[in-house]
Fold each of these.
Amino acid sequence: MSDLSPLGPRPVEERFNLRPYSFWLILIVVLGWWPVVGVYLAGLFADLNGCEVSATGPVPCLAFGHDWGTELYNASGLVGVFGFTMPTALILLIVWATVLGSSFLIWRRRRASVIADPMRVRWLYYLVSLIVLLVLAYLTLYGKLPGMVILVVIFGGLFWVSSFLFALFSLFFRRASDK
């Protein structure tokens, strides 16, 4: 759908609306850190009741007339889940930041009433995205980021190459037809 309709162009909000992006950011952070909160609460409960939490098996913990040892042991097992939720949250955070940045740039262009030329290739975007992909690959291969991030880097790299080749093709095709 184009920006023009029988009623004229769509109005552009004066301020960029961050509310939907804030909701998704909070959801991503909660997804990534909920196992840590569960382990912390289990440890806090055990400390307040003079109990011990062991990784080798349930230890009896009598509190409020009930043995909580098995529940505390199961809650301490959430550390293993953290190995999955945190890399997933990091990948979702990268996607979230990309969507936020793209939406902000689109909003800024609409606010300035800039009409995009679909045939004009913006080479700076290719350079910036290539640098981001290379930095993510470097950090992943040297152990600074979880190994799962390399899959996102490979997918992004394949997408970058295909997009770059399409941009080159469209540039040369346009120049050949203009002559």
Amino acid sequence: MAWASRERTAPGTTLGVVDNERIYLSPPDMSDVERTMMLEAFDSNWIAPVGPDLAAFEAELGRWTQRSHVAALSSGTAALHLALLLLGVGRDDEVLVPTFTFVATANAVLHAGATPVFVDSSDQDWNLCPDLVNETLERKAASGKLPKAVIAVDLYGQCADYARLEPICARYEVPLVADSAEALGASRDGKAAGSQGVLAALSFNGNKIITTGGGGALLANDEALVSRARHLATQAREPAPHYQHVEPGFNYRLSNLLAALGRGRTVRGLPDPDEDPGSGRADRYHHALYGLGRAGADQFSRAGLLGRSGPNGMGAVGPGGADGSHRASAADSGARDRRGQCAAAVQLLASGLGLDGRLSNLR
């Protein structure tokens, strides 16, 4: 059962050659369209972080995310860093971030000189818990020091609950930033990933929805914010006929060449679940997990890998227990080999997916 295809070639292999020995989590989705557009940009000699493909890529990202203004940058981390600087985050400030996210979210806060304050995630969608955000802001307000910003992360392509987060943050006048690095093309409550918050960040790293090899974008509806971001991202160079700088800046802009690579994917459109070669994968996981039923859920629970039971009696393989904590039961504490638990859980899942003979390749 090979899931790879011409358009999902594994890293290090030739385009069109299928790797039947390994299932990759998120291989780049490249085609002849990307190759052609990148070569055209190369032949045009627009290589630097300025050019027609860069401007077009930003416009297409704005259309996808329902944003008026976009700055294409060198990484999603750069986008988060600039977002915090634009909001005035600095030394001695605090920023709320979810416990369950990639380290870049917290790193951006540290780059700005501030302190990340970790708030637990919801067992419903694994994203920042609105109830806990509300409790934290209430407590911080009572202490006389509110955080300078809140960052919500759209984890694994699942948008956070902005319908609840935005009014909570607005009540305390704390700006909300959306880290949509992993969710381009997703939506929730009819709103596209990247369309929420005062500012939002995307990533185009090699394992993201679309890739430019490395890259990101900062999104906003405020033209002044994005204009300021572009200024800071190009070493804060002043509009003078010579090199003039009055403040420190960053080398954060995306090159026109890499923007052309990203445009290849945008020209083809976001992956269509009805046409994409991997479209059946989500269905296979859904049916395999659903088929495990209560017996399978109980096995995961005994392994300490399930939180509160979800719909249909199935637990959610998530970040914590029913109280949002990360505590194991006293009976399990120190009595089980965690590696063995995970191996048993993976074996159970693989059995449901019909992958028993390929566990050595699931890395």
Amino acid sequence: DGYGQGRFKDYRPWIDQFSLSSKGRTSQLQGHTVARPYVLFSDLERDAFVMLDFEDRVIDIREQFPLLDRKLTTRLAEELGIRHPVYPGTEIPVVMTSDLMVTVLEDGQLREVVRTVKPREELQKDRVIEKFIIEREYWKVKGIEDYKVITREDLQETRLKNIEEINTAWDLSHSSYFEGFSRKRQNEIISKLLELLERKNESIEGCALKIEERYGLCKGAGIYLCKHLGAHKVLLTDLNVATKDWPKEKQYALDRQNLPS
């Protein structure tokens, strides 16, 4: 049926929100690296996805990626002395999945990395570790050595919060600040904001206030526009600075090549 196959916009996850009940909250997010909806089965999985989706080196993320070769997972389980997971009420081996299969581009070379997401307390359970061992060894056989388990402690919380904050301004058409504005008008305002930022005479917040005054925008519209530029990596800042201090930053760079068309 095409599940667990394809790349980029054509990929269909092996497990969807209708076929799994999760202990966590199911989230549906719009991807930015690849513009398609993603279904994540816990808050932690969602947060890991948000971080990966913002990485420059990442070009594709495929969630709930299947280990389709059941003969191999079964053989590995036997060799490792581990009971292979089975479908409830049967002895049929399940098709195991990895949470996130990530394609990265480094030094002009594409490679796959696998990220499995679990709360740290789950790592105290022998059965959880056994499944991870099968998963890790499977990908080794398939030529993927970069396999890691991500816990909440591995995420940079300040960076995550900043990415989530600027991503709220990804699409100006969804903002009441610019309702009724033509694309041409939006581009004119963005161009003037970039001119102010390029002078580097004041903070991001200072430039935002000036653009509001110049164009008679509602209070908050200027900083929203700065977040929009940050989400598209036109305005480059230290996202490890506390969220409340981000607008006060004077140390930033600009990359006009990333301006959305």
